């Protein structure tokens, strides 16, 4: 019985890694991230996008300060800036998928994702 459970768990883990290849090391990689611009300190940033949900804090600040605010905020691993508002987020790695938006920008801190898929 224990052997069957171990085999089933192993198969599920292999399935998850094949369906969600980013989960292998929990860091976004591959061609879908090629369009992202890397700015100071290694932050990934893109115009006209959003990461819906997972907000932990929001503040009215200039675009240039949004990524720094995320870096300086415990628990923040991604952000969205729209019309002067910076939305700080804590997104599990498996949910780090942008949604196109006609305005605003979004970004994430690649080093803030742990092997479990949540912020370290």
UniProtKB/TrEMBL annotation:
Residues making up the signal peptide according to the UniProt record: 1-26
Keyword Signal assigned: yes
Top-rank lineage group of the source organism: Eukaryota
Record key words, sorted: Signal
The name this protein goes by in its record: Apple domain-containing protein
């Amino acid at each position: 019985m224990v052997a069957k459970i171990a085999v089933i768990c192993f198969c599920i883990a292999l399935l998850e890694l094949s369906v969600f290849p980013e989960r292998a090391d929990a860091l976004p990689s591959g061609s879908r991230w090629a369009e992202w611009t890397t700015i100071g300190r290694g932050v990934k940033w893109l115009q006209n996008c959003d990461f819906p949900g997972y907000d932990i804090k929001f503040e009215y600040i200039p675009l240039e300060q949004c990524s720094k605010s995320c870096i300086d905020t415990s628990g923040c691993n991604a952000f969205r800036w729209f019309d002067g508002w910076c939305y700080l987020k804590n997104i599990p790695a498996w949910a780090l998928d942008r949604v196109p938006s006609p305005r605003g920008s979004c970004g994430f801190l690649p080093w803030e994702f742990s092997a479990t898929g949540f912020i370290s």
